[in-house]
C-alpha cells in the first residue's frame, strides 16, 4: 500500500499535469473499479474541467468545475500516468482512462484491481467509505496536543504490571 508521503507526491505531480484539462471521455475495461458504473462517470465528468487535485489521508481527490469530486484510493499497487496522446500504446494493467480535449489521457493502472474510484458532491467527501472514519491529518498544522491527550484518556487498556 502506498505510504502517505508517496500519495502526496502523486497528488503534487497530478496537480501540475491535469489541472485545467477538460474531460471528453471516460473509459474502462474493469467496471468494478468505478463505484456507480461507467455510465455515471461518463455522464458526470464528460465536458468538465479539473480544478484541483487534493489529498485526504491516502485518498486522492480530483476536483471538477461542476462541483463533483472523484475520490480515488490507489490501494496496494494503483498508479496514475499521463499519456501525452491517446495514441500512445496502453501500459499493462491499464483499467481506467480519461480522455482530455487536448489529446492527452489520464490512465489508471492497477495490477491487482484493488483500487476504487467514486464520485461525490464536492464538500461531501467525508461521507465516502474510509474517509468518514479518518482522523486528523498527521501534520503540524492539524495536530492538536490537547485533543490528542483527551483522545488517549478515553481508551481504557488494562495496565500490565512488570514483575521484578
From TrEMBL:
Domain Formamidopyrimidine-DNA glycosylase catalytic: 2-115
GO biological process, one term: base-excision repair
Protein name: Fpg protein
Organism of derivation: Lacticaseibacillus manihotivorans DSM 13343 = JCM 12514
GO molecular function, one term: DNA-(apurinic or apyrimidinic site) endonuclease activity
Coiled coil: none
Pfam families, per the entry: Fapy_DNA_glyco
